[in-house]
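Hi there,

I know you've been waiting on this one. I reran it after we fixed the sequence typo, so this is the corrected version. Both the input and the resulting structure follow.
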Amino acid sequence: MKLLSKWLLSAMALLAVAHLYSGVEVQSFGSALIAAVVIGLFNTLLRPVLVILTLPVTLITLGLFLFVINALMFWWAAGLLDGFQVRDFSAALIGSLLYTVAGMIINSALDSLFPK
């Protein structure tokens, strides 16, 4: 139940990001659902590999390069999907920051609703 709730809320967060920031466009709620899954899969499968491969750069930038990795995940997901577009890399950076903040709020709320 928690996973389904997180998926639906993440799709709604993606729609909210598209509404708040013009650099990100989502055509429908169905597109947002698919985009949320793709972003989640990228963050689960690709992000750890990229973090390890870019560890020296991440250490030199005191962790700020992780924002670039998040933006790349966001941008690549938009590149794969038709109903989800991101204008350019700077839009991906801003969109991923907004989406990450929304995801943190969602995780916090779901942790309090579904205690372990």
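Quick highlight: The CA atoms of residues 59 and 65 lie 8 Å apart.

Best,
R. S.
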